[in-house]
Amino acid sequence: MATKARTRAKQVDAQGGDPAGTLRDYYEQMSLVRAFELRSGEMYARAKIGGYCHLNLGEEATVVGLMAAIEARDYLFTGYRDHGYALLRGLSPERVMAELFGKTTGVSGGRGGSMHLFDAETRLFGGYGIVGGQIPPATGAALALKYQESAGPDAAAVMCLLGDGTTNIGAFHESLNLAGLWKLPIVYVIVNNGLGMGTTVEKASAEPELYKRAASYRMPGLRVDGDDVLAVRDAARDALQQARESRQPVLLEVMCYRLRGHSVVDPARYRSPEDTTIAQQSDPVPSFRAELIASGVLSEADATAIDEAADARVTEAVTFAEESPEPDPDDLFAYVYATAVANAPSALPGEPVMDAL
Amino acid sequence: MNTDTDNTEAVTTRTITYRQALNETLRAELEHDEKVFLIGEEIGVFEGSYKITAGLLEDFGPDRVLDAPIAEEGFVGAALGAAMLGMRPVVEIMTINFSLIAIDQIVNHAAKMRSMFAGQVSIPLVIRMPGGGGQQLAATHSQNLEVWYAHIPGLKVVAPSTPADAKALLTAAIRDDDPVIFLENLSLYSAKGEVPDGEQIAEIGKAAVVKTGIDLTIVSYSRGTTTALEVANQLEAEGLSIEVVDLRSLRPLDRDTICASVKKTGHAVVFEDDWLSYGIGAEISATIGEGVFDFLDAPVRRVAAAEVPLPYAKSLERAALPSAADLARVVREVLNLAPATATSNDK
């Protein structure tokens, strides 16, 4: 793994342009994502959560930075490592946790689970479990925006998140080509945590500097330190501005670390001790916390209070999820079709498929 | 409005081709709703590989008739994404064979989203594509893959057999809020038929009895229905009364219409262009077995394509594809009749 390229390029300058309140907000958000993800792992181990469960642990600065850049009018498409994005898009921890628990109160009514968080109101347009599956629809959403509104500072844009492993599939290249060709208002963000499951970027990509792939599609490609929340935010904001004002698609690569395995059941034995050490040393949550304390934005007591509040918030979410009802099997077919259709199947296993004539 | 019900007012009709019916319907829907746009390979300047979109670029411009590069997964998925934001894209995939390149977007995404996201999003997407063999296009370009899509909950799959149905089902598909796979057939594009003027909207999910009879039911769809009618009419001259059920919709499947017909005739043959094993006919046979077993006077038979990658050579292609002669022979067998004379059995 190209560890050198991943080490932090710059430290947060808390005395710079950002007000202390903003920095405090970012820390609160990072702390919430951290607490939520730790608890998700715990709930998975207790079999409260089923299926696959992929956590944003270690990626908190990336999550917060990207979500600080995106506007409410923009559309967000992500892969399956989506909990933190949903939380910061404005969905309550209750509804996100309830989805993981498979309850009716979940963001997707308990039908999607961890990988398929969706909320039309906040324009979180999914959570997708198939690697790269979100990229063509995200591109099409940008195509629709081109039909529906003019470019300008108030226009909406699409942010499409994808992992480093996703850059090798056809859908990535086909979509970037379409976006470049048709000048679509979209920002593709490669969240490069260095590992596609257990395979390093260097073992998977002939050009491991993934942002360079933008050159094939005549779009700007840039790389930013994903442990630097402000750098991520500023780069994403600038990219979104190009998308909304100039219809210029952008490829942004955000370098971060996955603190744990691919999913909660993965012990990540394939990782070298050095890589694990670097990942831990780069952990953005404690380092941002320390920086804010060092620069006087937060006191140790403030930071502790924030962490405790985040944890309490997540506890409320778990309680809500546990107490929420499970979906009723009578509603099994409720959402198969939007337009009612004659002879729509409705038989449960073993039931007759039709009335006997 | 529904073409399945009787129109009390007199409707004028014109005789046009299946191709023309599709073209006119696309034009009408582009005019009807500005959210409708067409997207696909070579549909603009080239006017479509089979000229279905002839003249539309000229009249509606490149935003409404969007030429896409050769990237089926990309542009089918892009159409899907546009549909998520309320557009009503109509995709042309050059042939059904190439839809396999886009199948992740169709099966893993378009078909799933509404259910998986608890009804928060609808996918008003139409994917038009022709299938069919018999044009010496060889194994990769001659497939009938309808069951691939008919198998998938969340999709609607229609397969019109006439110009009138091409119009009414395409209108219905474009106005439907779900992903609809619209199956055309290479050998039907130049077929002519009476098409009613004015707005015609079929009811998806309904089969039609296109010829009544009392001795045997032939169940078919798309190109097969035209062959079934030809055979039924030919046998009628010999005194047999054959009923023909045109499925029109492969998902949902109108099991009641099939069973009601077989209940009356007691005999059924499925005529299908796909391969036999696990094909459309397997589903129809199971339906008949479950629904009207007690009324059957003979086992249900299937006339389907030979299970081989379709060869190029005409002699082999002809041998592999189900023909009118094959169907007529099997109908006689089911009815326990003597084989026809050798000449009429020739392919």
Taking all Cα atoms into account, the compactness measure Rg of chain B is 20 Å
Number of strands of chain A: 8
- Which strand order does the major sheet of chain B show? 3-2-4-5-7-6-12
Number of distinct helices of chain A? 12
Strand-residue proportion of chain B:
15-25%
The CATH architecture of chain A would be 3-Layer(aba) Sandwich
Query: What structural class do the secondary elements of chain A suggest?
Result: alpha/beta
Which features would summarize this protein structure in a list?
heterodimer, A: 357 residues, alpha/beta, Rossmann fold, 6-stranded parallel beta sheet, two-stranded antiparallel ribbon, 12 helices, globular, disordered N terminus, B: 347 residues, 2 domains, 7-stranded mixed beta sheet, 14 strands, 35% helix, pyruvate (chain A), magnesium ion binding (chain A)
Notes on the protein architecture:
The complex is a heterodimer of chains A (357) and B (347). Chain A is an alpha/beta fold and 357 residues long. Chain A has one domain: 3-Layer(aba) Sandwich (Rossmann fold), CATH 3.40.50.970. Chain A is 41% helix and 10% strand. Chain A is built from twelve helices and eight strands. In chain A, strands 2-1-3-4-8-7 form a six-stranded parallel sheet, with helices on both faces. In chain A, helix 7 links the parallel strand 3 and strand 4. The longest helix of chain A is centred in the N-terminal third of the chain and has 26 residues. Chain B has two domains: 184 residues, Thiamin diphosphate (ThDP)-binding fold, Pyr/PP domains (Rossmann fold); 129 residues, Rossmann fold, CATH 3.40.50.920. Chain B has twelve helices and 14 strands. In chain B, the strands form three sheets. In chain B, strands 3-2-4-5-7-6-12 form a seven-stranded mixed sheet, sandwiched between helices. In chain B, strands 9-11-10-13-14 form a five-stranded mixed sheet, with helices on both faces. Chain B is globular and about 60 Å long. The model of chain B has no long low-confidence stretch (mean pLDDT 95). Chains A and B meet through helix 6 and helix 7 of A and helix 3, helix 4, helix 5, helix 9 and helix 10 of B.
